[in-house]
Amino acid sequence: xxxxxxxxxxxxxxxxxxxxxxxxxxxxxxxxxxxxxxxxxxxxxxxxxxxxxxxxxxxxxxxxxxxxxxxxxxxxxxxxxxxxxxxxxxxxxxxxxxxxxxxxxxxxxxxxxxxxxxxxxxxxxxxxxxxxxxxxxxxxxxxxxxxxxxxxxxxxxxxxxxxxxxxxxxxxxxxxxxxxxxxxxxxxxxxxxxxxxxxxxxxxxxxxxxxxxxxxxxxxxxxxxxxxxxxxxxxxxxxxxxxxxxxxxxxxxxxxxxxxxxxxxxxxxxxxxxxxxxxxxxxxxxxxxxxxxxxxxxxxxxxxxxxxxxxxxxxxxxxxxxxxxxxxxxxxxxxxxxxxxxxxxxxxxxxxxxxxxxxxxxxxxxxxxxxxxxxxxxxxxxxxxxxxxxxxxxxxxxxxxxx
Length: 403
Fold this sequence. Notes:
Blueprint: E1 6-21, E2 24-38, E3 41-47, E4 55-56, E5 61-64, E6 66-71, H1 92-107, H2 110-123, E7 126-134, H3 142-153, E8 159-165, H4 176-182, E9 189-193, H5 195-199, H6 203-216, E10 219-224, H7 229-244, E11 252-256, H8 265-278, E12 280-284, H9 295-300, E13 305-307, H10 324-335, H11 340-346, H12 348-351, E14 374-377, H13 382-388, E15 392-397, E16 400-401
Parallel strand pairs: 1-4, 6-7, 7-8, 8-9, 9-10, 10-11, 11-12, 12-13
Antiparallel strand pairs: 1-2, 2-3, 5-14, 14-15, 15-16
């Protein structure tokens, strides 16, 4: 269905407020409505008319569609035969050597596999993806070109922002010349990975990355797995750059940032405050085990914390569920978000903080004029969606009905 079409859903379940017992939220109120779509936007929300000639939403709960803010669409092995992670590759440099060997083979089927991966993410309610793509001497610009080919076929049903990702290091694999070219192309962010352990310096690769971003009006999204002093210093480097260059505020992110999960409470508070002040965000795949990220503390200080699946089926890891609700459930379990109110807030990690109700229970979404980016689920409310990972029944992107 084209996004300039006009149609209406009936029997749409929407959240309307909270029910209280004293000061405690004990229930989420809902009611049925008709929702009119026009030109990719929500045109109107009106009282339900079950007899109206409209698309029947069957009483499903309508929520903002989900956003996966950290993916690698260009090099997932999804669509190839199952392959577990090899124990022989123990370091990032081991993985780089393996990629340099395998990328020419993977590129042969990358367009088709990217399309399958997008289909999979969409089936779980995701309509928007921040995808990194390899830029390195082995791939050249082919990873980007193949990704663009797949995305062109999906342009009516998925939104994307692209990050040029020098997975093999900026100088370790002589990727700098390619970065200087790709940053002029139709991409949104420039990335990097573990500057000290891969390139042997924090300043040298980060100086290049940040200057390219500033000169070309791009954002920054750096993969940082390093813990300890080099991890802290890399984050502090980005904070300082964002403070020096206001154009980077709100456009600079550190993906993973595992070092934040290994600091003292006082150090974590200090770092969270500095990140918030500089407008530097954190993108997490919500790891656990010996690294539980301080997400509640970061949010308390106002740091934007984005969430993504990262690895789904690839040579790095195979535990990414490809489902943003699985991530919200993990967050709720890890941090003890179990009340009706807390669970309803947790949904925001899947929607980039677009929620039907504000913290006081006032209805704030959907409103006329909002983009028609919608997911329908078999559930009674947001809190149930998070805990039960409720079945996704339909997805709409910019008014286009995906399924």
